[in-house]
Design a protein that fits this description.
- This protein is mainly α.
- Helices cover about 65% and strands about 5% of the residues.
- Helix 3 (about 55-75) packs parallel to helix 5 and helix 4 (about 80-120) packs antiparallel against helix 5.
- The longest helix is centred in the middle third of the chain and has 41 residues, at about 80-120.
- It is flat and about 80 Å long.
- The relative contact order is 0.17.
- This is ArgG.
């Protein structure tokens, strides 16, 4: 069975026959799909006894940070330069959070698998460990909870940064996707230029 293509990649085949992978940038929507929201993070914190985050405060802090950065740079940067600079900064926050969200999803899958195995007849994964140690399944559940709290914290940074970007630039942030060069078109231009040089 063929492996399904990931939604963040696109394949193109230039005239040379070489396959080029184009990687699409992560979006804030992708971050929201992979990272726990405030309610999920609170539930995990209460269930596993971890720290409860000040989600609103963290989001607001990152929004203020980007606004203050733009204010400090405003005398030295033109409007377009500011937009490009902020686009890259916000993109870094979004990419980091998306990576954390993907890692969290993997940790949850491993925790679910280990817990399901523990429910079966061969319960090695959920047997108590040596005295003072948790079972393997319990450790995986705790690890997934920790990764969920971290992914939630990292989600707050791009949410604040995206809000600041919109406020400063006046339009919604979107990832930078480099334009696809059409090799046949550039070849046609070079051929036309060479042909035109015959008339000089």
């Amino acid at each position: 069975m063929a492996k399904p293509a990931t939604p963040s990649r696109q394949t193109t085949r230039p005239a040379s026959g070489r396959v080029v992978q184009l990687r699409k940038g992560a979006t804030i929507e992708m971050v929201r799909l992979t990272c726990p929201d405030e309610a999920q993070a609170l539930k995990a914190a209460e269930s596993f006894g971890t720290a409860i985050l000040d989600s609103g405060g963290m989001r607001d802090l990152h929004e203020r940070l980007i606004v203050e950065t733009a204010t400090a740079l405003s005398d030295g940067l033109g409007e377009r330069a500011m937009q490009i600079h902020l686009q890259r900064i916000v993109g870094a926050y979004v990419g980091s959070a998306h990576g954390a969200g993907q890692f969290y999803s993997k940790a949850v899958t491993e925790a679910r698998d280990a817990t399901a195995k523990g429910s079966a007849d061969a319960r090695d994964e959920d047997l108590d460990g040596p005295v003072g140690y948790d079972s393997a399944a319990q450790r995986k559940r705790e690890f997934a909870a920790d990764m969920g709290i971290q992914a939630h914290a990292l989600r707050l940074a791009p949410e604040g940064a995206v809000a600041a970007y919109s406020q400063i630039v006046g339009e919604a942030w979107k990832p930078f996707d480099p334009p696809v060069e059409n090799p046949s078109q550039s070849f046609d231009r070079r051929a036309a230029a060479a042909q035109m040089s015959a008339f000089d």
